[in-house]
Amino acid sequence: HNPPGNVVSLSVSSPPDVPIGLYSLTLDQGQKVKLGEFVLLFNPWCAKDAVYMEEERDRQEYVLSQAGLIYKGTTKRIKASPWTFGQFEPGMLDICLKLLDENPKYSSDADADCSGRRNPVYVTRVISAMINSNDDKGVLVGNWSGDYDDGVRPSHWTESVAILHQWADNCCQRVRYGQCWVFAAVACTVSRALGIPCRVVTNFGSAHDTNSNLLIEFLYDEDGNDISDDSVWNFHVWVDNWMARPDLDAGYDGWQASDPTPQEKSEGVFCCGPVPLKAIKEGELNLKYDAPFVFAEVNADVVEYVKLTNGRMVKMGGSSIDVGHFISTKAVGSDERHDITHLYKHPEGSLQEREVFERAKHHHELQQKGEEPGLKVKIKVSPDMDIGADFDVFAVTNNTEADKTCRVMFYARIVSYDGKPGANCGFIEDLTMEVPTGKGQVSFVLLRAIYKPRVNQKLSAQISLQNPLPEPLQNCFFSVIGAGLTDGKILIQNVGTVGPKQEVKYTVEFTPTSTGSRTLTVDFDSDKLSNIKGYLNIEIKE
């Protein structure tokens, strides 16, 4: 360059393996003059960087996109919920760097920790530990109790920005509360902000193996009470990060699973991963990090026992196909669900899948205990069962050679998405019962944006929701947010009471501050229905 006058133009180049973080630029001419500061990040556009991604469309999705979808529900009812990651919103990068500086490894040995930040494997592991607050000054407190009076109900969160700002603005005090999708979404924000490609992943029928034997052992007493430690969650959410694995043999680069939800300790800390998806698929459980735990999440076998009053264990049944279904993430460049189950496991029930499980078991001495049952009960429920509808319980099968007279006890019990049982709803000795009214699926309709969407010009969007219940909803309000749309603020509108089967409409106004594809996210809450979310993709023009 040939700048005019006394101006000197400098170009600074960095090797692809230097630590990320905040750097000072100083000119030394006998006297040191500070020229400024810059932040060095991982670079997915650099072919020699450990996080290099070849396809531009993948980089657009997994690094640059500030909004996405997180999948929840059950294997029979998968529903997408919008989330605003907001990694480029004001202050986010500073907060993400602060998160790295608050980790205990930095406090104990700052030089070693900063040197480790050249490696995305190390940084991802720090992020996994720091998103939860179980061991350190991490971001979120996990809460699955149902009591959230001293914090925010996990289902109310729709964005990472408010969570990270609350943590940073309050001297790194823990933010209450999160569950798995909140932990994963915040981890995704931090990863993308630091330049590590990241996607949020949901596993339906997700096992939590507490003793690392690759079995989920459900244990019940004679009254039907669950006395086991293991569980199978309706769904569980974690993240995949894209990186090279020079610490492993060749062939393990690419997507790595990492889980910031505090479940079990790894090397003395509540964190999990990163572990190559290939290692999980092939049952190679000796590879770093935490391969046995992640393998069990997607591939454990389920065994059920009854513990009799005399201490004898009777096997009720089990399954090798209940765990690890419809592993999902948002598709690149669209709002479609992308099924990535094939990256985590071979087809369920296939010879390859069983061979992998047996190979994985070789690392663990597995012993199934208990007597085989003489009678089996099978329950069949329609996947389209309506709220308040009856369902039938079929049928008792006699596997012995003698006639049996049996008394059938039937319990209905609330179970949270993480498999933890709640209070009994009822107990009868018949084969048909009525299910109490509960929460069904609600369709959120976001109508088209009113007026042409242009940057720095006021824009309106209309939102509508219909009450599906035969009773009124009280204390109804909408919360609206969008990166580059609402200026980092949550727009809240109280709409009062919505009558039975009534439709409510609300027009929201905002001024976009950034061009390009943006996502407006809406959350609806009331006394009887909550966590009802919708979104609208908007292309903002100049």
Neighbour order of strands in the largest sheet: 13-10-9-7-16-17
Q: Compute the gyration radius: what is it?
A: 26 Å
Largest sheet features:
6 strands, antiparallel
- The CATH homologous superfamily of the largest domain is called Transglutaminase-like
CATH class division of the largest domain? Alpha Beta
Q: What's the overall average pLDDT, rounded?
A: 85
| Overall CATH architecture of the largest domain | Alpha-Beta Complex
Instruction: Please give the share of residues in helix.
Output: 10-25%
Task: Please report the distance between the alpha carbons of the first and last residues.
Answer: 31 Å
| Overall 3D form | globular
Q: DSSP helix count?
A: 11
How many separate domains make up the residues? 3
CATH topology of the largest domain: Coagulation Factor XIII, Chain A, domain 2
Structural class: alpha+beta
Low-confidence stretches: 427-447
- What is the number of beta strands? 30
Percent strand: 25-35%
InterPro entries: Ig-like_fold (IPR013783), Ig_E-set (IPR014756), Papain-like_cys_pep_sf (IPR038765), Transglutaminase (IPR050779), Transglutaminase-like (IPR002931), Transglutaminase-like_sf (IPR036985), Transglutaminase_animal (IPR023608), Transglutaminase_AS (IPR013808)
GO cellular component, one term: mitochondrion
Active site: 180, 236, 259
Binding site for Ca(2+): 299, 301, 348, 353
Protein model, in words:
There is one protein chain. This protein is of the alpha+beta class. The protein is built from 11 helices and 30 strands. The strands form 11 sheets. The chain has a 6-stranded antiparallel β-sheet, sandwiched between helices. It has a 4-stranded antiparallel β-sheet with strand order 27-26-29-30, with no helix packed on it. Strand 1 and strand 2 form a beta hairpin. Helix 2 crosses helix 6 (161-169) and helix 5 (120-131) runs antiparallel to helix 7 (180-193). The protein starts with 20 loop residues before the first strand and ends with a strand. Residues 427-447 have low confidence and may be disordered. Pfam families: Transglut_C (PF00927), Transglut_core (PF01841). The active site is at residues 180, 236, 259.
